[in-house]
Specification:
mainly beta, 7-stranded mixed beta sheet, globular
Length: about 120
């Protein structure tokens, strides 16, 4: 079955950096757009970034210029490099996979906690 397993979340000071990883298995990685979402306590889940084959990426305005999404097809892994972190970036970060041509996200990981202290 399909599994998305995130890692890399931790406590970091404001201004610091983290790199999140999401290892995908059980799917044809090149056929899926991979995305990152986040959910802060008491708030809805928000889109952060997405990447599909060919290097096409998309970002939420709140993270443009600070976060970079990338994917390694050899490892079936998608990364989220987060720089200049702010306390408002604190959230559970989840990765998701969406088959090309579909509008809904098909698979979700369990999430990894990122906490940014001021």
């Amino acid at each position: 079955q399909v599994q998305l397993v995130e890692s890399g979340g931790e406590l970091v000071q404001a201004g610091g950096s983290l790199r999140l990883s999401c290892a995908a298995s059980g799917l044809s990685f090149s056929l899926y757009t991979m995305g990152w979402f986040r959910q802060a306590p008491g708030k809805e889940r928000d889109f952060v970034a997405a990447a599909r084959r060919g290097g096409i990426t998309d970002y939420a305005d709140s993270v443009k210029g600070r976060f970079t999404i990338s994917r390694d097809s050899a490892k079936n892994t998608v990364y989220l490099q987060m720089n200049s972190l702010k306390p408002e970036d604190t959230a559970v970060y989840s990765c998701a996979a969406r088959l090309l041509g579909r509008s809904a996200w098909d698979y979700w990981g369990q999430g990894t906690q990122v906490t940014v202290s001021s």
